Batch of 2 targets.
Target 1
Amino acid sequence: MGVALGDIVSSEEIGMNELEGKVIAIDAYNIIYQFLASIRQRDGKPLVDSQGRVTSHLSGLLYRNSNLLEVGIKPIYVFDGKPDIMKEGTLEKRKERKVKAKEEYEKALEEGDLERARTKAQQTSRMSKEIVESSDRLLELLGIPVVYAPAEGEGQAAHMAQVGDAWAAGSQDFDTLLCGCPKLVRNLTVTGKRKLPGRNEYKEVSPELIVLEEVLDELGITREQLVDIAILCGTDYNQGVKGIGPKRGLKYIKKHGDLEGVLEERNEEVNNYEVIRKLFLEPKVTDDYGLKFESPRVDELKEFLCEEHDFTEDRMQSVLDKLSAVADSKKQSKLFAFS
Amino acid sequence: MLKAEIKAEILRDVVEIIQTIVDEVKFNFEEDGLSLKAVDPAHVAMVELSLKKEAFINYEAKDTELGIALNKIDQFLKLSSPSDNVTLEHVDDENRLVLKVNNITQKMPILDTAGMTDPSVPQLDLPINVKILGKHLQTGVKASQNIADHIAISVNKEGFEMFSEEDEDSVKLSISKEELEEIAASEDVRSLFALDYFSNMIKSVDSNKVVTVELGKDYPIKLQFDFADGNGQVMFLLAPRIESA
């Protein structure tokens, strides 16, 4: 999902400790989808509680955030609002893919092919109201602020970084960069392993920082031109021009200056490209949000996880202890606060 | 340039005091003596220390800034007895400090001080000033260590108090006004501190020495005392815990 610009966008490794004290606006849907896809049982079924409610995302959010809080990172979660009408095509296609994946999953299960079942199951992950609400509740108990974007979370995260409320955006997608986010952190995780999409393989990863200005300088283009490259390659709002990936897109845009020139030379069309451009260049955002970082409420968390959602108490102990330590450390003031 | 000779026990005091806050420090050897400032990585505690050249047996220095790993000096001092004389030598532009005691010569690398900026000492207006014997503070800490991770320090019209509680247990050390060396208090105050930080600081106090304690309400505590026959001055600052949060 999102725009695959990895081939032309260079990043630098950044240690978790360098992120201490920094506010990072995390694209909530992006990360929750990752958890829904990757946190599953052997046969591909998501984790569920005794009432059959999916809890994979809760497990992911709990462990990921307790690690972030432990190193002193201040996450903010930015949820998507209403998707733009332009995204309907993509959403429709995703829905179709999920229906198909579900059929294939069931078939693979019948045939006893667990590995394939798992892969297919991962492609069926869906966001529901229940998942958003339980995520919101968990984040609240962790003391992490939540922001609801008027439209896409990426645009809102970019805006918050632009106005200085966040140091960077946190997402695996590059869309925040297109939306003008000055800094993007990818692989915001301590454990250092990420599942490769569609495969049962893991890759060692560490956090990386992408600085928009440096990317544009290095490529010798403007942000507008980067957006045009993305449109050529395909975004959540359009399919892209066949045969053009980021590298060729970059060449074309540098040659012609803008999308119009490239389309003219290739005699191609992209419907509504001006609207799509605007979605990235002027995303719908809000300034109506509060950012209050609070201490984790460990007792309530325990109740929420173990009683409401049937997490095993023994297995939660170490993460709850970690969060208690986080809550405790927040009570210690710093000397410079008094000068 | 630095060429100095000092009693091993004084150097050990210096190292012990600073080690309660940091592992590496920037020593400033000026013409009239040694000075340094350091803040712990979490920015919770700070130490400021000065040692006049009179504390040394011989002392000759000119604007010498040396970044030193304290555990190396600590280990070196273990080769000496308290009354031994230790010499410290540094030649400008050399990247090593040379220490000698008895028949031992040890050279240790100078650390890059670029990252060791002098912290600015917060200007605090603390309403309470109490002078108290080190041994009282040490007893209070010992009592608290048995039961809690935090210690509340307060001053009211009765005198000075150190208090800790955890679940059903509580312990209090009270020092009446009469038992204090001096008290200047215009209001009742109380602040809570992390016991591990506080006990480390108190450890480096001589039990028969008078410690000047400055205190406020939910405010940092300032401890001051001298060592090396009055030629050394130490100031510790410790940020409080916020009880309501």
Target 2
Amino acid sequence: MRCFCCWRDHSRRQRRPAISSNPEPLDSLPVEPQSRQERLFLLLSIFIGVISGLLVVSFRMAIEWLNVLLLGSSIQPHQLNLIFVPALAGIAIAILTRFVFPQVTGSGINQTKTAMYIHNGYISFRTVIGKFLLSALAIGSGYSLGPEDPSLQIGAGVASLVSRRFGLSKARLRLFAPIGAAAGLAAAFNAPISAILFVIEEVIGHWSADVLGSIVLSAISSVVVARWFWGAEPMFRVPAVTLRDPRELAAYAVMGVLGGGAAFVFARSLEYLRPRAQRMRSTLRMMQPATAGLLVGCIGYFGLPQVMGAGYGTIDQAMHAQFAWKMLLLLALFKLIATTLSFSSGTPGGMFAPTLFVGAMLGAGIGSLGKIFLPHLTGSVASYAVVGMGVLFAAFLRAPLTSVFMAMEISGNYSIVVPVILANTIAYLISRALQPTPIFEFLTHQDGLWLPSMEEQREESDLHIEDALQPNSFPVLAGSGTVEEALNLVRQDFSHVIVRCAKGLWYVAEKDEIDVLRTAAAKDEDFRVARLEEKIGPARTPMLFPDLTLSSALPYFHRWPLLPVMNRAKRGALEGTLSLENVLRRYQQE
Amino acid sequence: MTATTQRFLVRDSLAVVSLTAITAVLFAVTLFLFRSFEAHRASLAKYWAHQGLAALQTNQPANAVTAYRTALSYAPGERNDELMLAEALGEAGRIDESFNYFTGLWESRPGDGLINLEMARLATKQLNTQDAVNFYLAAIDGTWEGDAIERRRATRLELARYLIQQRELVQARTELLIAGGNAPNIPDLDITLGGLLEQANDPSDALTYYQRAVHDRPRDADALAAAGRVAYALGKYPQARNWLDRAVREHPDNGKNSALLAQSERILQLVPAENLPVRERVNRILAARAIAKLRMSGCAAAPKDLTARWAGADATANASALLTDPDRQKAALQLIYDTEIAASQHCGAPTGDDALLLLLARSFAQTEETSHQ
């Protein structure tokens, strides 16, 4: 019998990356009822949501406590601690990452994805603790990183830890990682829909009905817990947007263009610096967090302390139009630099908050500038800032669907949807054109991993049956007619004949079968007058339609040399035929 | 139920109970930490708001801006701190930032009276008259916390002052009359209204408010002096003398009031009012004619037709002729007044009794004009 009191022992015993696809359960349990796992799956999703929510609340508190403790309650330029605190924290982070928590570097999203696809959902308890402590220390001491991605990994770690206690199958264990990830992200963002969509877009990488219900349950549970503590207010307060003049959409479109460009610059900066930093000798790599901390601290010391930390306070100030447009654009630029330095140094922390920060500054800057030159613009600076956040999210993180819902959820404002969709789409398309590989995918490739992604799926174009469909050139016989009538129709030497059977089904007979029929009919009078349908085999061809994927037809060629394709609107009507040769030829044309 | 199923049931139940217990403990710990965290944030917000106020009071708006920004980072959305921050930005000379900040607040609360008032003040600094007036009006119609009636009236008076400054006297007068119409009888407010109405070129209504103030506070020297001054300007000399006399009695050291009182008394000695006994009236006309004649003799640039009139019967009629003929009295008076007005136009500003006669002449002309209309 197992219980949660024996937590530690179990975790040790099971802590082995299950790279092989061994179908055996994790321990030697007797055969269990299938319904048990399904019931537990849903119940555990709620527990995972609640525990993740509590941990994320604690995580945020830890960041703020550390921030006040290390940098003081009012961060201003020209305070010396802005320089030496991040540098000292960087040394501590480097030592702990090297010797105690080796798995905690990076944002947490790719690590969660790796756990799901490579390690059967396994994330160690040590990694969860390390991620919590080191990310809190990094963000609290001023590194330009965010708490959302670590929250996502903490949630996934909690899910992994909880699910392992129940001895579920490997397939189930794998699914728990995204469930916990959604819970962690939902609590960090106070935005359940965005969290669910992001996990589907970025962590799972494809739409999966198996896990959707559990993801929703865990995300909702964690948000309920987070709201119990932080309140139900959206992250930012934005007045309703009224588009009185459709021409104002042009301003949002411009923002989409600029956002796409900014995302490109951001991605290229990371793509340039991170591999170079990782190629350095291990002793030099140990110095990287401290160096990054020092440089970020210098940015703060010499006038822009707003770029330090997650920066939500500064986003709020920008939304309340507290900065002039020049300052906003300057903040966007230096946040981009500070984030590139912080992230490339391998310091644990997320990319969400910096992305939102850069987007908000850019949006607010464009909004402020627009109001100077086009005073008739009705959108507030805050609405431009929210759209800007969505734009960078869509273009940099390449999660277009999430970006739209995120903009609405964090502002609690659904009137903003039209500008958000327009600007995000433009930015996303520009980013895809300029930078074919999304940033998270690039980072996994850099780490030597090739994981599935939604973006990859978007690039793929699935072939359909209609792409390989050929007009029918074989005789079609009525199954309701006699064998003699049928044989009289097949005078020529066809390789196949197609038989129309009852209920709109079909049968395909090869030449050998026809020859057998012909021989039998020659010998037996009764056989000749019997119905053709009764004398052919009982099997029928599968029901295939032109819009189905071409791969869906492949399993049937083992039994049928030729597959009739039917019309969806008119049952029994033949659209054409499909042969293995046609299918292969079509695939080879790709 | 099979033995295997039973084993799973017991095992899972125990695991779920353990998980529930762990969740409960985690919740309790988080709650404890969160309460402590919130209390600390609240105290930091309070501390920095206090620092901001202190900085504003010591005329250090830049420090106040920093302090209020910090306070708001610990208590986001705290209305009072937001407004103070916007004010501090304005006082620090960061007008655009302040305006932007107030615009942001205004967009989230467009009906807030205080925000509209601050927006109006910023618009006045930006020399944007139309926006300023619109924001003032929105502030008057907006929502206020606390004594809304009082705040709306104060805002309307501020608008009136601004309009007077912009020389929009008609609109200013309208606003003042609305403010006065809804105002309770408070002497200080009446004095303020009277003063502003005087500036808005409406001495008549100003006198009404001064009178009300004097009625409620009969020994208020300021109200008495103001009422006397306006009454004197309106040609209501007996009332002017009465109020000025009382004002001087309250504050004998005020030389200005004393001088005006002396002028009032003298003018009352000069004025040939129709309700006087005929002899007294004629004596005053004769005295005034002598003064005017002297003024005329010293004014070589006077129009010729006026010089000709001084050679005629109106200038020479004696007391007995005037006593029996009211028309001659009027004609003599007209000559006196015309002389004083013409002399003031052609021969410089009058002094002494001539100045007082000029006042009477103008008052008479205005009365005549009004009666003709």
